[in-house]
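subagent[fold] <- orchestrator: predict structure for attached chain, return tokens only, no commentary.
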Amino acid sequence: MNPIEQLIRGFQDLVAQVPDLVAPFIVMLAGAVPFIEGEVAAMIGVVGGINPIVAGLAAAVGNFVCVLFVVLLTSRARTAVVNRRRAALVAANASASRYSGASGTADSVSALDATTSEKPESKGRAKFKRWLVRFGVPGASILGPLALPTQFTSAILVAGGTPRGWVLLWQAVAITIWTTVGTVSIWAALTFLVGV
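subagent[fold] -> orchestrator:
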């Protein structure tokens, strides 16, 4: 028995100590973690000896539930920020028109924009934004996991103004595709290469 096979057998023995009904929930929790997500969580489940279909479904559900919470939270935060900016702009316009006529509108808009500070953009975020411009929401959602976790890409999309339903639809498609690819590839590697 080679060292990789020994490592896998040891991991499977460890997972075998967990009750059969609890193991998919552990995979589901792993799928909710950014950078692990559905594809890696499914791989961990399959390596642990869980049925590949069960591991893939549990990992995808865990990942999607986390994305759902992120989308709902980001949507509420975006709504609050937009409403606050509108209120500040209206107040600035009202005070500008009261003191200098209606000509202060452009100055108040530029003053409001100047108050928001920008952090330098990471490489992953820059790559994701390029994909978003080039391929739209569907392409950016499907290619996004190559640069950033799905939780981050969904937050970026919703914060940018993309409708929640559209983001959730395409994130579900992306999670399904990448989890299936991860599950099938690790199953094939274990079956045909390692022989476990």
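orchestrator: received. Logging for downstream: The chain has a mean pLDDT of 86. The two ends are 11 Å apart (CA to CA).
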